[in-house]
């Protein structure tokens, strides 16, 4: 029997609205991965479309949590960060990466900063530079094309894209430090939408796309990143893990669209989890 993998997930947690830790924890757990959580903030709801939400910043708790974990000699097969709301958190998470990095573990950064060509309201171009420094410490980063533009300090370019543009963007992001880059929101026409994975060691660029579903669905970036990491922790190659994440995220969106629920609530990933487990464990899955 193989040793269970353990991941430290460094994200905020919203009491309502599927995103961040309320997505990462159940997806990684369903994939058979032990998920330890380091909350960066606690909110009553996520901030996408809701007003009047409560917010408690936990920046001052991050290093004490890390020190306590170190006192217990805890080790992690992966460290996984998502939305970080301040310069202080960017710097602290970088320090936490340094504290727990080993020659064998994996650091995945989802540089959650914006979408559709715009930064989120709490972010600035200066903070995007701080995120670029954090990405330099990662093995894998998972930006969308908006975040890629800000990480590279260039103008955002809307799709559809040419393969040459996607390759150049992925290579330049890898030059920041990470060995592997997964770009989301990649499209070559108006019909398909998906992701591109780039491995610097092999120079391989792979694409995976599914039929586009119109509309904005909250939390899908967290679903994608958590599923990607689930695949990697189960022995999948970067290409296989990207395909798994595209398929699972697309399935969650289709289910949510069919249910016609309020999109602010996030996607119904819970009832898609059995399919994810089947893909990971089944005959045609990634690992038995």
Automatic annotation (TrEMBL):
CDD domains per record: pyridoxal_pyridoxamine_kinase (cd01173)
UniProt keyword terms in alphabetical order: ATP-binding, Kinase, Nucleotide-binding, Transferase
Top-level EC class: transferase
Domain of life: Bacteria
Species annotation: Solibaculum intestinale
Full protein name: pyridoxal kinase
Keyword tRNA-binding assigned: no
Molecular functions (GO terms): pyridoxal kinase activity
Domain Pyridoxamine kinase/Phosphomethylpyrimidine kinase positions: 72-254
Record has rRNA-binding as a keyword: no
EC number(s) from the headed UniProt entry: 2.7.1.35
InterPro entries: PM/HMP-P_kinase-1 (IPR013749), PyrdxlKinase (IPR004625), Ribokinase-like (IPR029056)
